[in-house]
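Retro notes
What went well: the complex prediction finally ran end to end.
Inputs used:
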Amino acid sequence: MNYAGMNAGSLTFTASLVVVALGGPSVLDTFQVLQLSAYSSLALGVVGLAFVWGILGILSLGHAAFFGIGAYAYAILSIAQGESTFAVAAAILAPSVLAVCLGYFLFYGRVGDVYLSVITLCVSLILFSFMNSTADVSYTLLSVPLGGFNGISAVPPLNWPGFVGDFLTPEATFSLCFLLLAAVYLALQFLRGTRLGRIMASVRENERRCELLGYDPRWLKLVGFVISAAIAGLAGALFTANTGYVGPTVFDLGQSSQFILWAIAGGMGTLSGAIIASFMLQFLASFIGTSQLFNTSLVFGTVIIFFVYALPNGIVPSLQGLLRKLSRLARRQRRRPEVIGDSIKSTP
Amino acid sequence: MTAMIETVGLTCRFGGVVAVDNVSLKIEEGELRCLIGPNGAGKTSLFKCLSGQVQPSGGRVLMKGREISRFHPHEIARMGMAIKMQVPSVFNGLSVHENVWLAAARLHRGKALEAIVDETLSAVGFRSAEAREKRADELSHAHRQWIELAMLAACKPAIALLDEPAAGMTQDEMLRTVELIKTINRSTTILVVEHDLEFISLLARKVTVLHQGKIFVEDTMSNISNNAAVREIYLGKQWRMAQ
Amino acid sequence: MMNISRRNLIKTGAVGVLAAGVSPMLSATSVFAQGETVAVGSLHDLTGGTDVYGVPSHACMKMAIAEINAAGGLLGKQIELKTYDGQSDIKKFPQYAQQAALQDKVVMLQGAITGASREATRPVLRRYKVPFVYGTIYEGGLCETNAISVNTGSDQQAIPLLDWSFKNLGKKVFYIGADYNAPRNIGIWTNHLANQNGGTVVGEEYYPLDVTDFSTAIAKIQAAKPDYVHSCLVGGPHMAFYRQWAAAGMLKKIPIVSVVFGGGNEHMVLTPEETDGIIVAYNYFEEIDTPANRDFLARADKTMGASRPYINGIAIGGYTGPMIWAEAVKRAGSFDYAALMDALKTDIEWAGPSGKMVLEAKTRSTIQDMHIMQVENRKWKLLETQSQVRPFDFGGACDLLANPRNTEILVPKV
């Protein structure tokens, strides 16, 4: 059932993330903890995109803009204040505000799908160019130099709310990142099952029909767009807290296309798929970057082609399809003739 | 008494083409009106103007006495207008149940909502859970038409616009559709566009003929079918064959 | 009982969930302080947009490690080179730095050529106490005990080049640069050196890295009538400037000097008609005619093969980095971090293909010869050598012996 947000699968997936969050630190070494924390924050970024694209049908090619603004907001505020709580809040709020403004013009101005994708991409690239040109020492925000191409370095990690300098251990950060990922996943999955979520899905299926039923697709899209931007901002903040660095490349084409690749690989319309794909492809990128057996770009190109040709539906839907086929095969013996519109004689 | 829907000098241009030309039409509450006319007469454009999908180039549209010419489609829908499009417009990737649920969910909640969905689906013959879980794009053309009618009925509209509701149907299916429309008409004003004259004669009391964007004539079906001019512009060959 | 079994269940579950992803890593073991090898990391862009700088530097680094190993290793241990491909993706740098430090336990990491990747990598290596060797030319101002710069800051290039230019070309300079950190920094140097030499900066323009149309820039330069142009245009798109400059017939009229031209082997990509006469300053170029350099190039031909890249002033750092670090390790007598940091409190001297190099204790940057040279038919012609150019200490601001806790990049002020 495509509208059942909370089902056995999504609950199991949430539970797995929680298990990793709580059990991970006791079985992983420090490096793995750090690496997975960074991966999980990028996974969080792609969930927002998978939601807005897979559920609402809005392809935002500039998802990195929101991720990047969150990343910069966290870096600047955590350095300026020496405290990360407000920085995280601002990292969620700032991209949301941009999403409200941008979304208002895009959706209420009835900009077409293709133009919407291009405009969001442009916004991201404008931010990329702008941040690149802030190398001069006179570019500061809250007396933190923006740093241009070199970015902002030595960004402090998360601290316990209200306790300046009392930083979370890598293990605690790891647990927090995975719990947040689980919480956001569960919340979005829950939203999909609600009345609002189901109506949002109808916007993707047929926007005209949706508005002829009396729903305002502009408003629904705006809400979804802002939700995805807020999640991307949080992801940006966590990523920066994990790696201690932010630079203009968070806004570049590579960052946006990475999110899109993960969403495609995971499968349109599934949130868990995007998360799983993001982890798998990050591990792959990291692995081939150290193995030196193949050219990294070559491997990635092959992977993209593989997903487009062999698994056009993405990882999770393909697996689900396989399972369905198997179960159908098993049921074939006791199958009754299919009846549709049973009181009406069907068209011969 | 104010009319359910009224147009005053309604004009709709696309570039140089005048699709709807100074049309003044009045549909009273509870009426079941048929709109006929040859291809390109402006029927579909008129529907798009009425439902807010296209902004009129001139003239006014009034619904229950209130001007709606510049309203958005969702605002007009909220005032109680529902429309079945010429090409079935349903949520292809969603289940039959979900389609009707979405139509009813704007006005209803909880148990009442599920009851309406169940009742409406049963009325168009989707009784089994299996039939209701089918995706809309897996259905035949006729079934998709019924789903769209069901969605329309589930909205409990004040007025329904039906654009070729029996297109591509077999005789049985067409008769069934006539029954459905009559049922809907018990509580809803209906304006229907059709080509199938048998269908029209089964349904309509009053028929409006549209030609080149203008109202050509407005009369009862029997008078229309005897009107030589109408025959000339529209019915022509098809009419003689039906005779 | 209940509690214990539940906790086990959680652990097993976590392992199960993670197994797919992390299993390749669980097998990795620490190599430091056990066995016959120590690990050293190379973190360069080997693919993607900036691989033009990363690939030759990495190749030179491999050659250096091979030579150290062939000569019996370092302190009796063979060096294992761990390679991480930064993939021209800044996000990879801190992650690989963590992997190098925590998992592969490298005793030194070299690379992170672009300013952004350096800034992303540096704090990680500092936190995990892994010495960072920085092998490229850069904007200057790196002043941190953990960062060893074996190439030159822009000060070491700009001071000799612009002093020479004000003396030989004229007093009026027009500065044109890419709009990011290093060119901005070099712009400050240009102004500073103009003041010192009684010259004037008649124009200063910055262009984003993707600009390819320089007609306005050329018109502005023509209007300003400088004696020479100081260019800090960087990367593929900016090469268009040199084409358009030559096409406008300016190459023969107003000389161009640069501290970055040639870093991407622009003098070989462009035609001689577009580049002949451009003047640069580097610590190394293949045409240096000394026995040490001829020998180095012969060995490079042998280890890297005939199709090896041209070794320019950026790539050479890949070779000198491990060599100077090895000298320091020998001085320390141990791979231990504290011992190495102690050893670096005195100057380390080493003679390489470009002559004597001294890693200065105070700045942890390198004193070396600078060569002013000119393009002539896709080759470099030496104009003048300034011997043993010291890294700028920012008026005493960079003194790691007195202030070992500094990590900030120092920026020149006019």
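What we learned: Chains C and B do not touch (no CB pair under 8 Å).
What to try next: split runs per interface for comparison.
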